Every structure is written in C-alpha cells, then in structure tokens.
C-alpha cells in the first residue's frame, strides 16, 4: 500500500473514532481525585497463598474489592499481578512453571491455569465443575481439586491437558498432589481415612484405616503427612508409600499441650501449627525449631526445600513472611509489610520506599497498568527513590552509591564509583538525565549524568553549603551559601552556562525549577515567603505580600505548577496545609491534595502530586492528577529513542499526516503499540499494517483505540 493510500485508509478511521470522542480513554486521569495506591499494590488478602521452589503467590484486593493474583519471584524479589479481571478469586497455587486459582466470575468456582513462561491463561474446568474453596493443589505434573457438585476429587494432567476422575463415591476432600501421587481425605466410613492415587498404575489405594480420624493430608514425593486423632490430642503422622510404614512425627508431652495441626511437607521437613506457633521438624527427629508466632491458621503455611511461607493477620491487614530454613531467619515478603515513605512521581509512574522492620524496599507503581513491582533486593539499603518515565534512581546507603534502574530493560546500574562521594539528599532526575552532588574537600561538584550512556560531566563546583538541587528539561537549579549570603543559580544544559537568579538571601527552604519558572522559599524577617523567577521576562517576583505573619515553605515544581506548604489558615504555626499553584495563570488551583486526610511528604512529578497519608490510622501512598499526562512523557532524544503519540488523538486532530511527513514521508521506524507496559503489550510496524490493513483493523477492534500508541523511533 502506498503512503498516500495508507494515510487515506487511516483517515477513514477518524469517522469511527468520533463514536468514542465523548468518552474518557482507559488510561486517562481523573483530575482532582485522590487515589490510594499502596493499599492495592501487592497487598495480601485472606483468600489463600502458596509457595513453589521459585515463586510465591497470593490474592491481592484493592479498595474497590477487585481481586488479582500476585506472582512473586523469590530470587528476584519482585512481584507482579498476573490477572486483569476484577472478578473474585481465591486459592492460588503454584508449582514448576504454572499458577492455578479459583475464579468466581461465573458464580461457580472455575479453575484457571497460568503459564509463567508464555504468560498465557487457560480455563481448566467447565460448567460440570464447581471447585471447592481452598481445596486445590498443583505439582509440576498434575493439578487436583475437589468438585463441590459431587464431592469427588479430580486431576488435570498438565502435559496431556486432560482431566481424570480420582474418586467416585463422593465425600472426598482436601486433596494434595506430588508428581506421581494424589492424596485426599475420605469420609465414607465412620471415621476419616487417607487415600492416595497412583497415576502410573491408575488406581486408588487406602493408606490409613485407624479407627480414629486421619485428616488434612499433604504429600511430597511418596511421603504423606496428616493429622491423626488416635491419641488424646491431635498429632502429626507420616506414611511412606514406598515402604507402607506409618510413623508418629509429633509427641505431645501432656494432655495440657496443644493440638498439632495443618501439616505441610517438603522432602524430609514438615511444618505444623502448635496453637499459633509455627514449627518445623525433620521426619527423622523429635526436636523442632520455631518458625514464627501469632501465625494465621486461616492462611495455610507452605514449605519448599529452602523456605517457609507464612502469614500473620493484623486488625486490618495480612503480612507475609518468608522463613529461610538454613539461616533460621524470617523476612517480610511483598510491599505491604512496612510503612510507605519518600514518594515521587512522573506521568507514568509512582515510586516510594516501603519501610520494613528489617529492610526497606523501593516499590514502583505503574499508573497505566496498576501493577506494582519491588525494584530492590535484600542486599540494598535504599533511600529517596526518584522516577521519570524512563528510569528510577535511589541512593544505596549500604554501598554509598547512586543506583539507576532502566524501566524498559530492568537493568540496574551503579551510577557512582568508589572514588565518588554522592550526597544522599542532593540529586534530581528528569528523563534520562540525573544531576547529583559529589562531595569534595572544597565543597561539592555538581555532576550531570546521562543514564543511557552512564557518562557524567562536572557542570559546576560549589565551595559553600548546598541548600537545594533540582532539574527540569534543560535547566539545573541549586541554592548555596551561608550567613545571609545564599545564592540561587541555574545552569543551562544546552548553552552550558550558569546564571545567578538572586543573591544575598538570608536563608532558603526549598528551591525548584519548571518549564518557564523557578521557585523558592526564602526567609524574610520572621516569615518564609515564596519567590519565583520568570525565565522569559528574566525577573524575580515575590508571589504573595502577606500582611499577617505566616510561612510558605518547601516548594516543588513540575511544568509550571508547584506544590508548597502553608500555615496561614492553621491554628498551630507548626501545622501546614498543601496547596497547588499555577504560575502561568498566577492563581491557586482548585484542587487541594490531602485535604480529607493527614498528608505528609508531598511531592510533585509529571502531571500528579503524591504523598503519604495516615488517614483512618493506616499509612498509604496517595496520588492526585492535576492535569492529563502528556503524549510525550520523557520519550525522545538520543539515538534509538522514540516518541509516543496517542493514536486516537492524532487521528482526530489530523497530526498523523504530519508525523509521517516529519519522518521523511516514510513508515520506517513507525510502530503501532498496543497495551503499552502491560503483560499483553504487542506492536506492529506501520509497514506491516499497510500490507494487511484488514488484520490491523481487527487488532484495533480487539485492543480498542484507547490502548494504542503511535511510536516513532529516531
């Protein structure tokens, strides 16, 4: 298809897009609305959890009661949602390359299977089944469950993709499975017994027939563990299928002791609950170690060869812990076990610290896909995370280095070397540029680093005390000095020159730079007053001329909007409220972030403000957009970089023609990107789309106009 014909065909879509012109795009921002993100990030519900050798899984529930399955990589210490539907879910299990769960989107509990490698989800059961909550297990070869409609146990062969009925008499429950056997509790006699199914022989066998109850079995390889009531208290027993031997694992010392419940086995290690104390014990030993206390019995603890996963329930939350068997030590899992701090934002992302009891984590939240990811590992001690639409940056206190994280490739890089002494507070990020202060014997060297090339250059040497540092587009701003001789200076990256905006300032509390203005708070007499510099007019102006004594402090800017603290209307001089001010219109914006809560640590980036809020006695990160995100968020610039344009918008306003013309009237390097940033992301070149336009239309219909970008590579 010729360029002109392709443009004409795309133009024909404009009429179709008018049908959606009155709707809000799926990724559009709700301007002025507050949204909590940490309460739904990788939060843990009481719907179930599981552990394999490589992964942990659990159910996360957000503020709107929408549930998703979280897959957490133990080695990479990163979690992500693997489901997108808002239906109710429970009982996630994982083994090998698979995750399975029960989904209640069709009222009856359907079982879904997720392939971790291909990222494809398959529905396993049909309308003849209704999976029983918390009665589903998986191994590398088989998936087993209890059918609530007939109380029988079924298995799904993962390689053959076929279903096998293991029981026929009903009254079966609590199945478990290894690679060769399935095991379950049978209630067809006067007492509960344990049966197992040999997949190779294709038959069921009675394992235990004691006159008392044997219940809640679990299996590893060919060894079964279960609860047994034959003694005065419930004890844990094991049964070896290969030898036919039954062994008592736990031995209570007195009738006043507690029942032993909820056994789980991996290899020769078994875990169980004694009251609320979780214990681990070898099958060949009568001694045990304590794993954790106040452990939830509702969320079954799990074990693999290296770790134990267990949960502790609070009044309003659930915290997960991963116990290292070899090191005899527990650490928090996911991003909800600690308190959030130090939030920052861009158009696309929010980043913050999750402060745990033993370690802190950097958590990245994708606004477009609503997915949270832990970026740091257990050997890092991160501080002050920042984010653009390309990179995340934080200071590692343990190694005394600045670290960058490429959001596209996932590559982590140490920006500074052993010869550098980066200041842990003074650094700023914009796009792929980072400005940071390197402490020297004479003061500071202000360094500008291109994170794509990891090349740095010294842009200014400061010999006095540094008071603040910021970066926006092609300008770096800082304040330095002491004893009523503080200066505000700006460095132009393109022109490579420095200009002093104001000097002889007595003291300063916050300096920031935006698109057309710079803003700072300086001490005037007994008050803190806001001043701004207009780059077009090259003038310094005082923002307010207050008659009553009050303070405006800590301004932070993005574009031409800044947020600041003000105590003018508070009863207590130490109590501040947050305000948004638009320097273009010289007026306060009509949005008041955090007015319904208890906000702190307010920050601004891209088109949003973010803060920590302790409303309802629960600490969460909140965000509020004050504008729509730009079509070109931090993209473009440099070889191999690109610019993104909203497909629907460029069709409607006619700028798609100009984009193609600016590209030399060629399709080379132009792509249509669908579901950018999600697990369903796909792309097709404009050349391929022009060759098979009907298929391209089908893609548009499948993904929707709102989820398509035109990406132009330079």
From TrEMBL:
SUPFAM superfamilies: Tricorn protease N-terminal domain. The lineage of its organism: Bacteria, Bacillati, Bacillota, Bacilli, Bacillales. This is DUF5050 domain-containing protein. Residues 247-266 are annotated as: Disordered. It comes from Brevibacillus fluminis. Keywords: Signal. PANTHER family: PROTEIN TOLB (PTHR36842:SF1), PROTEIN TOLB HOMOLOG (PTHR36842). It comes from the Bacteria. Residues 1-28 form the signal peptide. NCBIfam families: beta_prop_Msarc.
């Amino acid at each position: 298809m010729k360029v002109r014909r392709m443009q004409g065909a795309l133009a024909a879509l404009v009429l179709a897009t008018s049908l959606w012109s009155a709707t809000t795009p799926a990724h559009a921002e709700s301007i002025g609305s507050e949204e909590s993100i940490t309460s739904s990030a990788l939060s843990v519900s009481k719907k179930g959890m599981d552990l394999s050798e490589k992964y942990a899984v659990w159910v996360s529930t957000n503020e709107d009661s929408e549930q998703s399955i979280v897959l957490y990589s133990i080695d990479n210490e990163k979690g992500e949602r693997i489901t997108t539907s808002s239906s109710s879910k429970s009982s996630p299990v994982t083994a090998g390359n698979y995750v399975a769960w029960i989904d209640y989107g069709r009222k009856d509990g359907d079982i879904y299977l997720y392939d971790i490698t291909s990222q494809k989800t398959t529905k396993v059961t049909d309308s003849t089944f209704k999976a029983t909550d918390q009665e589903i297990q998986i191994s590398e070869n088989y998936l087993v469950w209890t059918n609530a409609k007939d109380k029988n146990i079924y298995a799904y062969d993962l390689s053959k993709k076929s279903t096998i009925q293991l029981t026929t008499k009903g009254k079966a429950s609590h199945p478990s499975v290894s690679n060769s056997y399935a095991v379950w509790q049978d209630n067809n006699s006067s007492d509960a017994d344990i049966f197992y199914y040999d997949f190779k022989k294709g038959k069921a066998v009675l394992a235990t027939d004691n006159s008392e109850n044997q219940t809640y079995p679990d299996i590893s390889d060919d060894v079964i563990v279960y609860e047994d009531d034959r003694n005065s208290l419930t004890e844990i027993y094991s049964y070896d299928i290969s030898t036919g031997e039954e062994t008592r694992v736990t031995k209570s010392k007195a009738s006043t002791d507690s029942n032993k419940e909820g056994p789980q086995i991996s290899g020769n290690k078994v875990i169980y609950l004694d009251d609320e104390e979780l214990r681990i014990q070898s099958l060949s030993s009568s001694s045990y170690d304590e794993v954790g206390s106040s452990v939830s019995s509702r969320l079954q603890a799990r074990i693999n060869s290296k770790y134990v996963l267990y949960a502790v329930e609070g009044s309003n939350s659930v915290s997960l812990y991963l116990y290292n068997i070899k090191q005899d030590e527990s650490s928090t899992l996911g991003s909800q076990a600690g308190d959030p701090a130090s939030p920052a934002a861009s158009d696309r992302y929010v980043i913050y610290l999750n402060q745990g009891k033993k370690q802190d984590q950097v958590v990245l939240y994708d606004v477009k896909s609503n997915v949270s990811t832990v970026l740091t590992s257990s050997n890092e001690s991160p501080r002050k995370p920042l984010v653009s639409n390309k990179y995340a940056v934080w200071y590692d206190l343990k190694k005394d280095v600045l670290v960058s994280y490429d959001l596209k490739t996932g590559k982590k890089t140490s920006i500074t070397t052993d010869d550098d002494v980066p200041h842990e507070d003074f650094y700023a990020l914009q796009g792929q540029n980072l400005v940071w202060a390197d402490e020297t014997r004479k003061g500071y060297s202000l360094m500008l680093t291109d994170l794509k090339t990891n090349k740095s250059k010294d842009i200014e040497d400061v010999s006095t005390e540094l008071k603040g540092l910021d970066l926006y587009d092609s300008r770096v701003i800082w304040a330095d000095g002491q004893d009523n001789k503080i200066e505000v200076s700006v460095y132009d990256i393109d022109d490579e020159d420095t200009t002093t905006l104001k000097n002889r300032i007595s003291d300063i509390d916050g300096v920031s730079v935006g698109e057309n203005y710079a803003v700072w708070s300086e001490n005037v007499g007994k008050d803190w007053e806001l001043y701004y510099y207009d780059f077009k007019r090259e003038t310094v102006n005082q923002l307010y001329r207050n008659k009553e004594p009050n303070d405006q402090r800590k301004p932070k800017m993005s574009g031409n909007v800044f947020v600041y603290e003000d105590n003018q209307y508070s009863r207590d001089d130490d109590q501040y409220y947050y305000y948004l001010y638009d320097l273009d219109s010289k007026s306060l914006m009509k949005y008041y972030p955090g007015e319904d809560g208890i906000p702190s640590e307010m920050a601004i980036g891209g088109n949003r403000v973010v803060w920590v809020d302790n409303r309802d006695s629960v600490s969460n990160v909140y965000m509020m957009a004050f504008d729509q995100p730009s079509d070109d968020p931090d993209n473009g610039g440099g070889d191999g970089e690109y610019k993104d344009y909203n497909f629907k918008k460029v069709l409607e306003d006619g700028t798609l023609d100009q984009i193609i013309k600016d590209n030399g009237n060629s399709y080379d390097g132009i792509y249509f990107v669908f579901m950018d940033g999600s697990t369903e992301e796909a792309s097709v070149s404009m050349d391929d789309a022009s060759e098979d336009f009907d298929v391209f239309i089908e893609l548009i219909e499948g993904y929707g106009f709102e989820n398509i970008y035109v990406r132009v590579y330079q």
